[in-house]
Structures are given as C-alpha cells and as structure tokens.
Write a structure and sequence with these properties.
Blueprint: H1 7-23, H2 34-54, H3 58-84, H4 91-114
Helix pairs in contact: 1-2, 1-4, 2-3, 3-4
Length: 115
C-alpha cells in the first residue's frame, strides 16, 4: 500500500494546508501556544499514515493509523478551543476531520479482516 495513493493521505494533506491558512488569522500571542499545537497535530496525521503504509506488517500499519486517529482527536479539540476563544470558525475543518476519521476506521477494518 502506497500512502500517496490513499484518499485519507490526500485529504489529510489538504487538511494540513487548510489548518495553516486558518491559524494565520490567530492572534500573534498564540503563535507559540495554540497555533503551534494545532499545526503539529495536523502534520502528525498524514505523517503517521505515510509511516504506517511504509511498515511491512499490518499490525505496525494499524498502530500508526491509531496514532493518526489520536492526532485527529487532538486537532478537533484544539480547533474547538480556538472557536471558543473566537479566533476562527472551523466548521469545514471539523467536517474534514470526521471524514478522514471515518476513512481511517474503514481502512483499519479492511486490514483487520484481510489478516
């Protein structure tokens, strides 16, 4: 399985770009706090998908997909914090997170049943 062929990797790469665009409008005081955390969480998602796909066994691949799911949950929480602080509206990003999460769960289910 090659990560660049996967819709989840492509969507998560788009999510990273969208997150960076969103955080540009955050207050300067958040640059090393919330902005940094949000960007790191977003970057972790496609990175772990790619690393999981590069592993030789399904067990390792599943572990990295789980890490991606954790990063998605972390990003969702951070975006909700940003919304509550009225830094930005993140509705479309939250929808993208739900979509990526569903795709990862589907791929995990497939990998578990093929083993």
């Amino acid at each position: 399985m090659y990560h660049r062929d996967l819709d989840i990797w492509k969507l998560s790469m788009k999510l990273v770009a969208d997150v960076y665009k969103l955080t540009k409008q955050f207050p300067k005081k958040e640059e090393f706090v919330l902005t940094n955390q949000i960007c790191r969480s977003a970057i972790s998602i496609p990175s772990n998908i790619a690393e999981g796909c590069a592993r030789s066994g399904d067990k390792d691949t599943l572990r990295f997909f789980d890490i991606s799911l954790g990063s998605l949950a972390e990003l969702e929480t951070q975006l909700l914090i940003a919304e509550s602080l009225e830094y930005a509206k993140a509705d479309s990003l939250l929808q993208d997170i739900d979509k990526i999460q569903a795709l990862i769960y589907g791929l995990k289910k497939y990998l578990k049943t093929k083993s």
